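Render MFS transporter in 3D.
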Amino acid sequence: MASHARTRTAHPTPVLGVVLLSVFAFALLQSLISPVLPVLRAELDTSQDLIAWVMTAFLLSASISTPLLGRLGDRYGKDRVLVASLVALAAGSAVSALAPGIELMLVGRVVQGVGGGVLPLAFGIIRDELPRERAPGAIGVAAALAAVGGGVGIVVAGPLTDTLGVRSLFWVPAVLTAVAAVTARLVVPPSPSRSRGPISWLATVLLAGWLTALLVPLAQASRWGWTSAAVILPLVAAVVLAVAWVVTERRSDRPLVDMRMMRSPAVWATNLVSLLFGVGLFAVMVFLPGFVQAPPESGYGFGVSVTRSGLLLLPMTVTMFFAGLASARLARRFGPRAVLVAASALNATAVAMLAVQHDRQWQIPVALALLGIALGTAFSTMANVIVAAVRPDQTGVANGVTANVRTLGGSLGVAAMSAIVGAHTPVGGGLPTETGYTVGFAVLGVAGVAALVAATRVPGRAPTTTR
């Protein structure tokens, strides 16, 4: 094991504070930019197709980086890789803030995406540094913050842009992550457990290949056309590369992602629930602001501003956080399966409410408050199930896979919603019809029902491994 100048003398409370700040800073970036893409497009004087890559580049980079950095943290020390991830977040944010054009902006967003490693590393550090009795609650808080940050990003994007300008949406995360990086270097002690053996770089390349071939056409399908060669051929390539990746991982003595670990009922069932929850979460965050901002003359919507639309999502953010705090206690009392089943049922109900009850403004925050309870409870419980089910040296990569699966689900949800809403948009342009949103939210509700079924496969009591 490599030597490290610091010793394991850090008090767990400051370590937890640094970890939570790191998680929140990254989560904020996941949604902070999406509400102001039209403003950013005008400032950069670029096309609609190119500005969409501001989100796609970040999503793709984070999807590739998250499991890889989780594995690097398990191999070389979670403390070191956490600092490197935070430095990448800060540097990418600064590059994007200073970018004079779309090209450099995209470079900054790719660098920001490297910070996706913060999530799996955070769960691993909590497991390493906190007493056993405090770890589940702390993991629940971290998982809740990871979800809450996305909601907060949408809420504060409008006020920050109005007050400090659109570039403040990059400067604020840059400052937060720079502070977190310095503090993490000083406070977080060396990892007590390390995995051995080299990193499988062939598996890394294959993983990056199939994720790119999958996510890019999904993100651009509404613009390129679902039947176009630019969408179909990469999706076919994604399947081929994914099969090659699985075969490579199964044959490797030191896989990037251990397929035996993935076959554990606690792991695969939890990841399936995570995928299906991601479908609804990302699609709601992306499309609901546009729905409520539409003028009433369109037959739906309330004609609210960007800032007001963000405030309508505030109940989801608040309930998500407090539900995350309570999740560990609920799981101890009722078991993780019961908690996930209940959360999945509430998730499906909340999204169905958006589909059938959206004529009055108060109905939106009520449905979102229920959705927040479901998401906060589920995400925190899933994180604890994964941590309890794998060895300490697998914590980073296992949680990296779960975060990645949620992102993939989000991509599928956004793509499906885009296709449905796009099919109900006038050919010559203009606003989508109400039917498009109603059908889209109903489809998200079906994904919620599927999550309910998947949650029944999670073990009643999470298996525990040696700490």
